[in-house]
Predict the 3D structure of the following.
Amino acid sequence: MKKTISIGALVALFFLLPACKSSTSALAVQTVLLTASKTMIYIGDVLAIHATARMTDNTNQVIANATWASDNLAIATVDNAGVVTGVSSGTVTITATFEGKTGSITFRCLPNYGGTWTGTYTVTACSATGDFELYTFCGTLPSGTVLNTDLVLTQGGAQVTGQAYLGTLVANATGPVALNGELALTAQVVQGDFTIDVVYTLQSTIPGQITGGLTQLWLGLGATWMGQGQLTCAMNSFTRTSLMSREPGVAGLMRLPPNPTLQDIMNALRQR
């Protein structure tokens, strides 16, 4: 007996074929996710980014051949493997594109101020009033005087802490790193009848080197001292080193008598 297929059955089969084809089609990428071990990178350092694709079946797939890009090559670059290199201070967004989908991650690039630094600075301006003028503050520390300074710093992200050495004076220091990479490091020496408020304004565009300057505001405590002395200074050189000419000390004054005079402190500033 001869079998026939009805027209209705053929029509039903025609509509079923696309559904069968769709159920067996290849998975597609829904989103691209970028991750890294941190979102801050020091100038000159490298950091790997990991790219993952979220598929239409909600599984994850490691991406090995994404197209990478940096939105600011002056801040950081990225190679074909997703390795970022810090170039200068600022923020940068890195993207990876895979099968028509793009993921992004934003980094902050900043200088690494951590470590032991040694250098010199030159007094560019000196002013004195009251007793500081009477005791020839600017005669002892005139413009052109070259003095020594060391920094022993620890950096956690954009915050820096440590100790600042000025001659044989030493004080605790702390300060933030601004978005442009500038470090405003403050320290205060307190001893006897005097305080010295120190502000370092530092920048590091080349790893291992610091430029900038510092100011010192000298004040007398109590009613026995009037006026103030102020130094404005420029850094000559400041380089990271593994050695210091002396052992790190504690905040305060080193190698000074119990009740130092102004002259004692100025002499300590000039020593190393």
Summary: The mean pLDDT is 87. Residues 27-110 form a domain with the Immunoglobulin-like fold (CATH 2.60.40.1080). The helical segments are 7-23, 130-134, 137-140, 262-270. The chain has four helices and 19 strands.
